[in-house]
Amino acid sequence: KGGLKRHGQVHKVEKDYKCLDCGKTFSYSSSLRNHCNVMHLRVTPHKCSECGKCFSRKANLLRHQQIHTGEKPYRCQECGKSFPHKEYLRNHEKFHTGEKPYR
C-alpha cells in the first residue's frame, strides 16, 4: 500500500526536486540523485567481468551478460529461432506477420 502511494507521486503535477544542471524535475530526491549520477556525472558502477563494459543500472548489466553466456531465452513460436532479448524476438516476429519493423 505504501509503495502504491509513493508511486502516485511520480504522476503528480508539482515535482519538488529540480536538476541544477539541466532543469529536469523529479518527484523524489532519489530520482534526482540517480539522474545526476547517470546523466551528468556518468557514474557507471556495474562492470561486466567478461569485457569491462560499464552500466549505470544492474539490470542493464545482467541483460548485457547474456551476450557472453549465449543465453537465448526468448523463442519464436512460429519458427523456433531464439533470441537473447525480448525486443529482438518482437522485432523478428514482425517478419512473420509482414509488418515492417523499421520505417
TrEMBL record:
Any single Pfam family the record assigns to this protein: zf-C2H2
Entry keyword Metal-binding: yes
Keywords carried by this UniProt record: DNA-binding, Metal-binding, Nucleus, Repeat, Zinc, Zinc-finger
SMART domains: ZnF_C2H2
GO molecular function, one term: DNA binding
Domain C2H2-type, residue spans: 17-45, 46-73, 74-101
InterPro entries: Krueppel_C2H2_ZnFinger, Znf_C2H2_sf, Znf_C2H2_type
Keyword Magnesium among UniProt keywords: no
Protein name in UniProt: C2H2-type domain-containing protein
Species the sequence originates in: Micrurus paraensis
Organism classification: Eukaryota, Metazoa, Chordata, Craniata, Vertebrata
